[in-house]
Structure formats: C-alpha cells, structure tokens
C-alpha cells in the first residue's frame, strides 16, 4: 500500500479524561474524526489505534477498524509505530483523535506532498490565523516557514515577532494544525530521536525533528479546525457544528 491513516486514540487525558468518547451532537468525538477521515481519497486503509477497551468497543460499533496497543506509550507516534510495524506501507498519516472538524482534503494534501516528492519524509499543515485572539493563545501553535514551504520553527508564542520599526504593517501569521504525514522509514528514525531542548521548552514534540536537522514540509489549507483539549473546546465544536447545520 502507498498511504494509510492511523488515528491514535488514548482514553486517558490529563486535561480532559475520556475526551475521545465525548458526545458531539449524538456521536462520540472519535466517530466524527473517523467519518471525516474516511472521506479522504488517498487513504487505502484507516485504523483507530487505542489502548482502552471502552474506546475499542465504541469504535467497532460504528464500523471502524481497530488495533489495540500497549498502554505505556508516551506519545501517539509511539502508538502508531506499534500498529504500522508489520504493515507493508510507504506512507502513514497521523490523524489526531481530538480534531473532530478535520477536513478530508487536509489529509489528502499531506499525503500528496509525500507522494509527489521522494525527498519529503515528513509533512504537516497550516492555516492562516484570522482571529487575533489566537496569536497570544499558547494552545494555538504558530509556525513559520521558508520560501520552499519547509518549517523554520514552531512556537506557542506569536511568531514572527512584529518589530515596531518594521516596514511590514501587518505580518501574516499561521497556526499549525496537528496533522502529520511520514514515510514509514522516517517514523522509525523519529522514534529514536532524543527528546530535545526546545521540545522541553515549548512542550512541542515536533521540535525534536528540527533540532536533529530534518526538514518538515508544510501545506497551507483554507480549512480550519478546533482541537479539543478542554471541555470548553468541546462546546466550541458543538457551537460550530450547530451553526453549520442551521
């Protein structure tokens, strides 16, 4: 296979226990993610990787393919690696279980970036920031890129910093959306990268890739998402979906 999608779904969450099963308009959040991911055209398979029987039962009930993983994984990436290790596949898309508004075209865009260029081993996505409140929200990760759309840096702070004496009147800011694509080979390189200094400073796992000298391709999207980290985020998603269907 060329491309598969994995949705790592951990039941335990420090800020929001059991959030992947939280109800959103009559469906658990994980089902919203799965249904949207199923619409992606380039995925040849889609698997929910979970460590809890409650999540597995719910996922199986709505028809998802499920793979049980060890409970001790530190990150979703580790969970994905356990699942894909025996699978003959070239590229893997990491679809976050707490992104119920993920658009299938985002998934296809990341997959296409990997398929189009053999030199790209990791890709992700960004969206121009429209709401000024997001600039100073540390839960909204900002990203800056070079002229070839490779990441220069991720930060929870507003970047680039707008100097008062700058001739640029209004910088363009982008938020990072936590959708990742990797070649299978790079996943195993990633697994063995040490936790880095900047990763510890910002609490952003992807920074270890940059600190080790690897490149991350970024694709811009017009579609927005609301990642669910807290019960308040969940209410924002419900409000958005209610307005969209109204």
Question: Can you tell me about this structure?
Answer:
By secondary structure, the protein is an alpha/beta fold. It has a single domain (3-240), classed as Spore Coat Polysaccharide Biosynthesis Protein SpsA, Chain A, CATH 3.90.550.10. Helices cover 30% and strands 22% of the residues. The chain has helices at residues 29-37, 53-61, 76-84, 104-116, 184-191, 197-202, 207-211, 231-245; strands at 3-9, 23-24, 27-28, 46-50, 65-68, 91-94, 122-128, 142-145, 151-155, 174-183, 217-221. The strands form 3 sheets. The protein has a 7-stranded mixed beta sheet with strand order 5-4-1-6-10-7-11, with helices on both faces. Strands 2-3 form a two-stranded antiparallel ribbon. Helix 3 packs across helix 5 (184-191).
Distance between the termini: 40 Å
Describe the strand arrangement of the main beta sheet, using strand numbers: 5-4-1-6-10-7-11
The CATH superfamily is identified as Spore Coat Polysaccharide Biosynthesis Protein SpsA, Chain A
Q: Categorize the overall geometry.
A: globular
CATH A-level architecture: Alpha-Beta Complex
| Strand runs, count | 11
The SSE order reads EEEHEHEHEHEEEEHHHEH
Total domain count: 1
Give average pLDDT, whole number.
92
CATH fold name: Spore Coat Polysaccharide Biosynthesis Protein SpsA, Chain A
Largest sheet: 7 strands, mixed
Rg, rounded, reads 18 Å
Query: Total helix count?
Result: 8
- Helix percent reads 25-40%
| CATH class term | Alpha Beta
Uncertain parts? none
Strand content: 15-25%
Structural category:
alpha/beta
């Amino acid at each position: 296979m060329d491309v598969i999608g994995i949705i790592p779904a951990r039941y335990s969450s420090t800020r929001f226990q059991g959030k992947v099963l939280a109800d959103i308009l009559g469906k658990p959040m994980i089902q919203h993610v799965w249904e949207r991911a199923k619409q992606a055209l380039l995925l040849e398979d889609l698997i929910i990787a979970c460590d809890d029987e409650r999540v597995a039962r719910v996922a199986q009930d709505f028809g998802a393919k499920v793979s049980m993983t060890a409970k001790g994984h530190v990150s979703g990436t580790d969970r994905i690696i356990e699942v894909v290790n025996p699978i003959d596949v070239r590229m893997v898309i990491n679809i976050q279980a707490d992104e119920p508004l993920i658009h299938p075209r985002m998934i296809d865009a990341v997959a296409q970036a990997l398929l189009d260029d053999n030199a790209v081993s990791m890709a992700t996505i960004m969206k121009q920031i429209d709401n000024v409140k997001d600039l100073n929200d540390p839960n909204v990760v900002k990203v800056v890129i070079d002229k070839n759309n490779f990441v220069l840096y991720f930060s929870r702070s507003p970047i680039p910093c707008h100097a008062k004496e700058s001739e640029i009147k209004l910088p363009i800011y982008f938020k990072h959306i936590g959708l990742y694509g990797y070649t299978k080979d790079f996943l195993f390189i990633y697994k063995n990268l040490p936790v880095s200094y900047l990763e510890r400073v910002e609490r952003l796992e992807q920074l270890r890739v940059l600190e080790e000298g690897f490149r991350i391709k970024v694709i811009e999207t017009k579609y927005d998402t609301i990642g669910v980290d807290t019960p308040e985020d969940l209410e924002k998603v419900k409000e958005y979906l209610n307005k969209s269907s109204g």
